[in-house]
Structures are given as structure tokens and as C-alpha cells.
Amino acid sequence: MKKFVFVSVLLMVTALCVFAGGRNQGAAASDVEYAVVLKTLSSPFWQGVKDGVEKRAASMGIKVDVYAAISEDDIEGQVQILENCITRGYKAIGVAPISPVNLNTKIAEATKKGIYVVNIDEMVNQENLRSLGGAVQGFVATDNVAVGRLGAGFIISSLSGGGEVAIIEGMAGNASGLARKEGATEAFGAASGFRIVASQPADWDRTKAFDLADSLITRYPNLRGIYACNDTMAMGALEAVRRANKNIIVVGTDGNPDAIESVKAGGLGATVAQNTDAIGGIGFEMLVEAYTRKVSINPNADVPFRGAEAELITR
To answer: Do residues 252 and 154 share a domain?
Structure first.
């Protein structure tokens, strides 16, 4: 790897800075048993999940420390944060991994130390985790297949006679993005007259989504609808549509404030809002239940799932 030492040191320093800055103030490691490691706090979605965790913890009279990576591609930084949490001696840790496998080695380490782990929003690769001897005691997320169906369903109901549509996916291999793609693909496939001309990832990134949408608009002049697997990408796609002066319906996912404002202003056609407060709150509840009930930490056990409902927001 080029510049290995420099990059490794930089990532470690970055992760430690996030770790130090992300903790709740006034809470020493010795009196806090719960921690939650999120993907990032740079988006309204993850800020909402953090708020849900902290509100539920406060209502239960329990302290919790919440950490997050700098961005949704800071894979190594998030691994370092979880490693630090294990070292500090938390008894139960919630994790929202950036990828299905990036935290698995550390989750397995936590399992071997008897630390309870609950999986939040982004599902870990269970087969890989089991092969490492790791376990999670629960999983909470929105039903992302249903989310994709809702988003595509709005496009279908808005376009009489069908037409060409496209899906802008999240990061390749990302479970929530794949599930949304699956739901949208099923919905478009079941609707009469619709044809998916492209389904490609833009890595949750606005600029990449703009570039992809711009290319698709040029390649498919009869394109009538775009479903994006998050709002950040939807806003990028909408920018490309406007620049091309096309009448193409763009629908996003997450219910971010800027996306909701865009819907109200007649920009995005709709956004599928996730209940971030519920995701965070339910995840923390599952963490407390696992630890206080001292459930068996068994890598081969089925993982309980609890879902949070989503809402289609239209103008």
C-alpha cells in the first residue's frame, strides 16, 4: 500500500480525535456501561439516530456514550473507535457498521470478552461474523425492502403509461442499499409499462449521484423517473435533472430536512422518511435488555430483529 505508515498513523489519530470528541461530557468510563458506535454524525439521519439513543437512555436513567466515524467511508477510523470501546471496558456496545464486514473482527473480539453487541441499521454479514466466532444479540433497522417499494411506488403512481426509470444505489455491498434497490426493482418490475434502464451505485455521495444522473439523462433521453437510495444522492440527481431542463421525477430516501424542503418546494417528488428516533431508541433498548438479562452470547443463535416503520413524504 502506498504511504502505508503515514496513512495508518493519520487514520489512527483521526479515529482517536473522533473518539475523544464524540463522548458525552461528564461521563467517566468507569460509570458508563453502554456505548454506541455509529457510521458518522455528518448527516441528519445519523444525528437523528444519536438523538434517539440518548433520549431513550435518558428516559431509562442510564448513561450512554455515543461515538461516530468522521464520514461514511472512514472504515478504518470506525474500527479504531470500536477497538477503543472494547479496551475501555464497556459492557454492551451498539454498532452501525459502515460496511457489512468492517467491524466483524472487533465484534468477534468483543464476543470473546463477553461484551454484548447489538447491530443498528446496517446489517453485519452474519456468515462472516460467525466464522470469526462473533455474535450480535439483536438487529434493528427500517424494513428497507419496503422503503424501496414505497419510493418506486410513488414514481409508478405519478407516471401514467409507464416509461424508463433508473435506480441510484448506495455503496456496493451495503445491505440497506441493496435492500432498497431490491424493493424498488420488485415494484418497477411488477408495474405495467415500466423498464429499468440502469441501476448503479453512487456511494451515498451527492457529486457521484449528479455525475451518474447526468450520464443517464444523456444516454436515455426518454428517462422519466429516478429512485435514489438516499436523499443525498437524490439531491445530486435532482441537480442534474434541473441542469438538463428535463421533466424527470426524482425520489429519495431518509427524510433529511433539505429533502423535505425540496419536496415542499416542488423539487424532489417525494422522500421516504425513516424514523431515526425509533431506530436509535429501539437499538438502545435491545442493548439494555441483552445486558441486564445476561442472555447467552452464542454466535450460532438466530438474531432477533425489530423494525421501525418508514413514511412516504409528498407535497
So the answer is: yes
* Same-domain check for residues 172 and 126: no
Whole-Å CA distances, 29 to 87, 162, 304? 10, 57, 28
Number of domains observed in the structure of the chain? 2
Exposure letters 23-55 (e unless 16+ CB within 10 A, then b): beeeeeeeebbbbbbbbbbebbbbbbbbebbbe
For residue 251, what are the β-bridge partners? Answer: 227, 270
Domain, as residue range, for 199:
144-274
Distances (CA, A) of 95 to 39, 59, 124, 138, 139: 8, 21, 9, 11, 10
pTM recorded for the entire structure: 0.69
Measure the CA–CA gap between 118 and 115, rounded to whole angstroms.
10
In this structure, the answer to whether residues 241 and 303 fall within a common structural domain is no
Cell 442493548, residue?
287
Segment 203-229, tens digit of pLDDT? 999 999 999 999 999 999 999 999 999
- For residue 48, the number of C-alpha atoms closer than 13 Å in the C-beta half-sphere is 15
Does 20 have pLDDT greater than 60? no
- The tens digit of pLDDT for each residue in 40-60 reads 998 888 999 999 999 999 999
Cα–Cα distances (Å) from 81 to 190, 243, 270, in that order, read 43, 41, 35
Contacts of 209 (CB under 8 A, 6+ apart): 168, 202, 228, 232, 233, 234, 235, 236, 237, 240
Q: Which residue has the cell 441528519?
A: 44
Whether residues 83 and 191 fall in one domain? no
Residue listed under C-alpha cell 433497522: 141
